[in-house]
Amino acid sequence: MSIDALSWKILKCLQNNARQSNAEIGRQVGVSSPAVSERIKKMEDAGIIQGYHAFVSPFEAGYQLKAIITLRAFMGMLKPFLEKVKTYDEVLNCYRITGNENIVMEVVLKNQKHLESFIDQLIVYGETKTQIVLSHVIKYNEVRPIK
After folding, report:
1. What is the 3-state secondary structure of the chain?
2. Model confidence over 114-128: pLDDT tens digits?
3. Any idea where the HTH asnC-type domain is (predicted)?
């Protein structure tokens, strides 16, 4: 399915606030609520829209640290790690990447002690590097049309 200008406008509305009604989106983009509903359904069916999420503040939920941790897996340890990482509650996002490291994770932690124990679990699988996140520069940026 190709995404035309109207569908991009609908996607922009949804990315800004997925809880708004189809009628409200229709008013913003200039079509009826049923037309919005039909387009959204088609984009869901095509896998363009993959879900709707609530973004929870880790800090308001009690986590004091957010960190980016990279892992350079030891020989033979990447596949076991790829299974194990799915069990870690601390991991918000995990990416397999190219370059010297194999993995980049975005994690949330209660405190420095929690960070230390989490790293202790990771070093079985490879060499880690940790950066503490100080603040967001861009947060949940929307996907836009390719120019």
Report:
1. CCCCHHHHHHHHHHHHCCCCCHHHHHHHHCCCHHHHHHHHHHHHHCCCCCCCCCCCCCCCCCCCEEEEEEEEECCCCHHHHHHHHHHCCCEEEEEECCCCCCEEEEEEECCHHHHHHHHHHHCCCEEEEEEECCCCCCCCCCCCCCC
2. 999 999 999 999 999
3. 3-64
Q: How far apart (Å, rounded) are the C-alpha atoms in residues 93 and 69?
A: 10
Segment 57-108, tens digit of pLDDT: 999 999 999 999 999 999 999 999 999 999 999 999 999 999 999 999 999 9
pLDDT tens per residue, range 35-61: 999 999 999 999 999 999 998 999 999
